[in-house]
Specification:
- A 7-stranded antiparallel sheet has the order 1-6-5-4-7-9-8, with helices on both faces.
- The protein has one domain: NADH Oxidase.
- Helix content is about 40%, strand content about 20%.
- By secondary structure, it is α+β, with helices and mostly antiparallel strands.
């Protein structure tokens, strides 16, 4: 066995081991019949900045992610929030004590992106807004505008921001329906958040939404 072949085999084994080590969490199916009316969620929604350390359940997390970007039509893979041209350029990351996970809406699961608790770093990049560190989870909405730009040109940034607003409101209202609270944060250093989260160069962070129980 040649040294080159042995080295290549070792590298292949190393990278295969890394791929196998990536954590995936299959999520429960969402519920489409709730106990709280839409009108009640609109009436009761408030931006909350103080949270307890109480964890949210996997069912609650799955429901929030479905409200954000979940598939609502399997024939065409339409999602819960409207998107210009049905392009769906937004990506949802979940930051918690267990690390940072990326939501895969087509397969209804979370895929590990980073294994460390990055909330303290996100907090510093967000001008010290304590809700990020207090809440058990924070959703980070990023956008890859490449395909949108191909179709809509100069209107791309407007459409990305509009879509992020649709998604954020879905998250906020779903949080209320689940007995949770949230706050939409747009004040942060974009480049620092991107660096902290190690997101691809073609993604831009637009929103941070801490979610949990009111303190």
């Amino acid at each position: 066995m040649s040294k080159k072949f042995l080295a290549a085999t070792c590298l292949l084994f190393f990278f295969s081991s890394l791929a196998a080590a990536v954590k995936e969490i299959n999520l429960p199916q969402p519920k489409i019949n709730g106990k709280v009316s839409l009108e009640e969620t609109i009436h009761n929604r408030r931006s909350v900045r103080d949270y307890t350390a109480r964890e949210i359940s996997i069912d609650q997390l799955a429901q929030l992610l479905w409200a954000a970007q979940g598939i609502t039509d399997r024939d065409f893979n339409f999602r819960a929030a409207p998107s210009a041209g049905a392009i769906y350029p937004l990506i949802i990351y979940v930051a918690s004590k267990d690390g940072v996970f990326k939501y895969d809406p087509l397969n209804n699961k979370l895929v590990e992106h980073l294994s460390e608790d990055m909330r303290p770093s996100i907090l510093r990049a967000s001008l010290g807004q304590a809700a990020i560190n207090q809440a058990p989870v924070s959703f980070i909405i990023t956008a890859n505008g490449y395909r949108t730009r191909e179709k809509f040109g100069a209107r791309t940034y407007r459409y990305l921001c509009l879509e992020a607003g649709h998604v954020a409101e879905n998250i906020n209202l779903q949080a209320v329906a689940l007995g949770l609270c949230s706050i939409s944060i747009g004040s942060f250093w974009d480049d620092v958040v991107a660096k902290v989260l190690k997101i691809p160069y073609n993604e831009e962070p637009l929103y941070i939404i801490p979610i949990g129980y009111q303190g």
